[in-house]
Amino acid sequence: MKILCETQLVNRVTQANRTPRAVKSTLAIGYKQRASDANGNTKKELEMVLFTPQNKAGTRYKVHDNIHCVHTKFVLDGKATIGFKQPTENLLIKCDPIQLKGFLQTLKLGMEGKDAINLRLNIAAATAIPQKAQPQQRMTITKRSEYPIKGFPRTLKSLTITNIQLMKLSFEVCSLRNLTVLDVSGNKLTKIPPELGRLSLTSLTLSGNALGEDKDWRWMSGSKLNASLCDLDLSANGLSYFPPLLVKCERLVTLNLNHNRLRHLPFSIRRLQKLRSLHVSSNKLESLPAAIEDLHIDVLDVWGNCFQGFNAEAAQSHVRRVPAAHMPSPLWLQAARAVSSYKISYSATTLPAVLIQLISESPKCLCGKLCYALSPEDLLQRVIQPKFTNIKNLTYSREHQIYSDVVLCGPKCCAYQQLRSLFNIMFP
Ligand SMILES: [Zn+2]
Q1: pLDDT of 315 over the 60 cut
Q2: Whole-number Å distance between alpha carbons of 234 and 207
Q3: In terms of domains, do 161 and 304 share one?
Q4: What's the rounded mean pLDDT across residues 33-39?
Q5: What is the Å distance from ligand 1's center to 380 Cα?
Q6: How far is the CA of 89 from the centre of ligand 1 (A)?
Q7: Spacing, Cα 414 to ligand 1 middle (Å)
Q8: Distance in Å, CA 378 to ligand 1 centroid
Q9: Are residues 120 and 149 in the same domain?
């Protein structure tokens, strides 16, 4: 009989190493056939063998007249101790209680000289029970033939499926609860199922797909994904606009939107306070929102865009104007403005989500006042090459100026007066 268990070995005499580390072991018991004696009787000798990772060949213990004691008081908890006379060692065993009970009963039968099925193991040739291999945590698929027919191991933490013309992200992938890294770049995905938002992904690579055709970005507002996603790559997807729900992924550190067709970034981008690296090269950006300055960006790549001067109509049209019916009550707006101007710290547990959205996503005047969805008295202006003092590394095409859109809360605002003196021509 063999059992898989954890063991500790203590020498009763030397007491060296009093609390040894428990190691995964195989414990075996059985008869060892001895050569025939002078009378032609084969003699059988009972033996126990302990296999550990340190001793793969096994340590052999005689059983007859060699058991000093057997402690079974905690056998129902899956613990027992067998003391040997030679060597003077105590073997502490921890394992499944039923298996342990069976093993101790077999030992008892053997000590009484009885025969039992469990003792018919050829102990001389016994080997350790193979330990279960580590569960699979990573999988990379780069050919269609490698796509698993029987499904994905539930234990996967990292999954890469690239360049296999994948049309659809299966529900099964969206339900791999242990997944933290997903790369499905270079496929033909046009849609991401909302269920993906239930995964605690830290890194998601979707580059080189066709998600620009998708209008359903609900997966970005999944609470698990929101709370975990640090790196998102949406480059080369034909995006013509910045997905509004993207600003809900507040943990984002790196955002790659290179090689799309974006014309504007929203003012609400200032919600991404953890963002350190923003890549928007090779788009059609005409300007950047001044809100970029509210972030703490280390790397901003805006190379290869179409920065251009003020076009009042176009500039106003990209700012979301909220229909009167959907305007938050003036009280909400007052509350949001108060939290913002007094710099009161807040979290999802202390403020309602509506208020957090107002505070963190509304355009902000240069004077610091929140301008919710640009009310009629607010002004939108575009200035040339603003100083982005918070950005450490800025990459842009030298032949073009960078333009930035600023929001001003009204002609009486001090920031308006300042800008007016700086950019006399642009301000009427
Ligand atoms: Zn102002």
Answers
A1: no
A2: 5
A3: yes
A4: 67
A5: 11
A6: 82
A7: 6
A8: 9
A9: no
For residue 96, report the phi and psi dihedrals to the nearest 5 degrees.
-55, 130
* Structural domains counted in the chain: 3
157 and 116 in a common domain: no
Share above pLDDT 90 across residues of the chain, in percent, rounded to a whole number: 49
Per the domain annotation, does 86 fall within a domain? yes
User: Which DSSP symbol is given to 317?
Assistant: H
- Three-state secondary structure readout of 415-426: HHHHHHHHCCCC
Q: Ligand 1 centre and the CA of 373: distance in Å?
A: 14
Whether residues 147 and 289 fall in one domain: yes
Which residues form the domain of 380?
Answer: 324-384+404-422
Helix, strand or coil, per DSSP, at residue 50: strand
Centroid of ligand 1 to alpha carbon of 245 (angstroms): 27
pLDDT value, residue 124: 81
Kindly give the distance from the C-alpha atom of residue 368 to the centroid of ligand 1, in angstroms, as a whole number: 6
Answer yes or no: do 355 and 258 share one domain.
no
Q: In this structure, what token pair is assigned to residue 274? A: 């953890």
The answer to whether the CB of 26 falls within 8 A of the CB of 4 is yes
What is the widest separation between alpha-carbon atoms in the chain? 122
- Pairing label, strands 277-279, 254-256: parallel
- How far is the centre of ligand 1, averaged over its atoms, from the C-alpha of 411 (Å)? 8
Distance 381 CA to ligand 1 centre (A): 12
pLDDT digits (tens, 9 = 90+) for 170-185: 999 999 999 999 999 9
Residue where a domain stops, chosen among 317, 344, 375: 317
Distance 331 CA to ligand 1 centre (A): 19
Q: How far is the CA of 376 from the centre of ligand 1 (A)?
A: 14
Residues 9, 74 share a domain: yes
Please say which residue of 74, 100, 125 terminates a domain.
125
The CA 403 to ligand 1 mean position distance, Å, reads 20
Chain-centroid distance, C-alpha 410: 44
- Distance from the CA of 339 to the center of ligand 1, in angstroms? 16
CATH of the domain at 15: 2.30.29.30
Q: How far is the CA of 341 from the centre of ligand 1 (A)?
A: 11
SS3 state at 158: strand
> From the CA of 370, how far away is ligand 1's center (Å)?
8
193/149 Cα distance (integer angstroms): 21
Same domain, yes or no: 103 and 145: no
377-419 pLDDT per residue, tens: 556 666 666 667 778 888 887 766 788 887 777 777 887 777 7
Residue 267 CA, ligand 1 centroid: distance in Å: 15
